[in-house]
């Protein structure tokens, strides 16, 4: 009880500090931009496109599209006006379009953290389309301070023009992001060091990312084998597998000085399944990422020393 009281008190003080007049019991507190202060801002790069909208008194609404991922949407607030739990999501017409009934989109989970509401692609697309149609997406949830409804509205004013810029940004995103290819693996058939078409597609994505991200300072390429055959033969095969990957990257313009090649033979198995041990792993290290032990397998296994 003491913790809950403290949390409610903190949220109440934060709300008052924003200069917001709290509603009486049962009345809804609405937060949203009007004609005079509704703005959308686009942050764009080949890594990410973000459409940001300030919601006065609440925080901000953000459409986010990372390279290699789909569109998402979230609401952020440092004041935590909404109580954690299940809220409602609907779209409604602005005041100058009377007679248009609100439309329910579904329910949303309201969390206790800074990012109170996060929506996946389907709902994010519905919200974007509703804004293009001149509607206002709205999230409603009970408040922390007295349980009365809190309504957070996303304004459609000045959205269309920035959304078209966002679409241009999204069309030029990289095919992948660092979380998707920062640790990758190429699998091989028994005794083979030949790249498949799918392997080449993966490596092409890695090349595209490396060409764009100047903060990557090292690419570790580690070759491995299963335990079939002699230690000497396996060491040679693992080196061949690592080199075929390294050569592919170099042939497509990656600086050889960026690449560190290591061969481990059958020294670091990751599974009892031999097929999973026949691999070359690729790990990208960016500036400031300097682990004490470099992992031979790229997935947290035994160190290569």
Explain this structure to me?
- With about 300 residues, this protein is of the alpha+beta class.
- The chain contains seven helices and 14 strands.
- The strands form three sheets. A five-stranded mixed β-sheet has the order 1-10-9-6-7. Strands 2-3-4-5-8 form a five-stranded antiparallel β-sheet, covered by helices on one side.
- The longest helix has 21 residues.
Helix-strand pattern: HEEEEEEEEHEEHHEHEHEHE
For the largest sheet, list the strands in their spatial order: 1-10-9-6-7
Q: Which ranges are low-confidence, i.e. pLDDT below 50, for 5 or more consecutive residues?
A: 1-5, 11-26, 292-305
CA-based gyration radius: 26 Å
Mean pLDDT: 88
Total count of strands: 14
How does the helix and strand content classify structurally?
alpha+beta
Globally, the shape reads elongated
Output the number of helix runs.
7
**Beta-strand percent range:** 25-35%
Main sheet summary = 5 strands, mixed
Helicity level: 25-40%
First-to-last CA distance = 52 Å
